[in-house]
Model the fold of this input.
Amino acid sequence: DAGVIQSPRHEVTEMGQEVTLRCKPISGHNSLFWYRQTMMRGLELLIYFNNNVPIDDSGMPEDRFSAKMPNASFSTLKIQPSEPRDSAVYFCASKTSGSYEQYFGPGTRLTVT
Amino acid sequence: GQQLNQSPQSMFIQEGEDVSMNCTSSSIFNTWLWYKQDPGEGPVLLIALYKAGELTSNGRLTAQFGITRKDSFLNISASIPSDVGIYFCAGPAVGNEKLTFGTGTRLTIIP
Done:
């Protein structure tokens, strides 16, 4: 069975550019989570969705970050404009309702120069 | 808020040795999850624990849900090179679906 799929795996962009990260959750999972991981701050939850609806976006750092989930099989995390301090690995994870077990994708390593 | 402290922060062991690490919480958890992260990859779920006192194994890995519900332990027996990585504990925040992650234990095997 396919796990969580993320694209791209690596992204290098210049400061000020728009960045879009993509995630396909595991089929049948109805909760989706976006995380950011850095050496300094560890793994931080940015936002999560239940049944395509954003439930908690308190971890989104600022208005430059936005996330959407137009359907059960696709979500995007957008940064506009990007800044060097956004450089990190961004993970998507999904789970089924009634379970706490989250399954992570391979991540997108973002570098903003 | 809830905090999860893992110890040790890092371990340097020789192949074949057993490994023990733990995770402690400032509050009660009803579920404990253990993940492993390889370099350049996402965390992979190893073991899930749902009851205080529960002891669960996955191959050479054994995890326990502490009876106080404020701690959990992970043991790896007869370590091999592919055990290298960062191990995270995690548990759900009270009343919602978000996970709180521990600070991680980095395991290195000395040749």
